[in-house]
Amino acid sequence: MINSGSTAFVLISSALVALMTPGLAFFYGGLVKRKSVLTIMMQSFISMGLVTVLWALLTFSLAFGTDQGGLIGGMEYVMMNGVGFEPSTVYGTEIPFVAFFVFQMMFAIITPALITGAFTERMNFKSYLIFLILWSILIYAPLAHWVWGGGFIAKLGAIDFAGGTVVHISAGMAALASVFVLGKRKNAEHLPHNVTYVALGVGLLWFGWYGFNAGSALAANGQAAMAFANTDIAASMAMVTWLLLSWMVDGKPSMIGALTGAVAGLVAITPGAGYVTPSSSFIIGIIAAVCCFYAIKFRIKMDWDDALDVWGCHGVGGIVGSVLTGVFAAKEIGGFSGLMEGNMALFVANIEATIIAGLFAFIGTYAILIIMKAMMNIGVDEAAEKDSLDRILHGEEAYTF
Fold this sequence. Notes:
By secondary structure, the protein is mostly helical. Helices cover 69% and strands 1% of the residues. It has a two-stranded antiparallel sheet with strand order 1-2.
């Protein structure tokens, strides 16, 4: 039976998650050079259009259709067939199935957009559109099915409340693969052109993340409220920790550092938001900030041109969150006991899920890009990178002065 309160809550949460993609566009847009801001913002916004079309036509069915051997969903929901007013007997049993469809669609939209921060200024727009289609079908849909659609990772016993493996580990490891395939920019100097855009973007992301995590309860209940609180606590603790780290290590209390820390905390709490206690979320925030901070230092030392640190923030943050969910899951919160409550099986299952998701996203993305690179020119030429990608690729400029 449909619960009107839960339905309203999930629809509002869906709108909050939808806002995160424009937030990501501002976050990334502020971090890049002035002459490339429209190019990277376009990559986020076009995901809202193209992935929605794919989701309705095919990928929702591949992710949440009837399980086929633990690997992929069936085709019964192609073209939204059977996605209507009545609740599913499996997913969100208090809300219309179409509300669940909409909520999950917002996750599918933002995940590939996250990857773009790693290969900024290196992929032309036509190639990005092809990559977006292939990645959504070949990487995101199977992984979502494995974890949330009754696939083999779910059968291992692993848990992921709101997307630590499906969204963040997959995007972070895909980002790292793209760095290795596309190589370095000719001018890899990191020059954030508008820190106020970065702050606006993080504000929108943080705001939307409450829908991202709390909405994953798929009901207006206590678990949703706990997920909301845990989300804010972990993000805040990570922000403060990162600020102190950057102050001690780099000598200045960096604004961008504090904002990046908040995002790292948001990423890390995502898989466990509805499964852990608030006291655990404090610890998760601290560990996430430390691990992601030093992951970025390691990336710099290795000279990987992950321009906006997608791997260091989302990949490493997602791994930390997934593993710590297996440690801190509390039965009183979400019905699962982790290592701290004596359940070694959940801890092991989450480590297995973390490894599988990371390897699948990395190897799959690497293969997609290598094949694309063999068949077409996927990069931008040196003259375009030196001049203005915005003008060369899109015929527009963000600033006309």
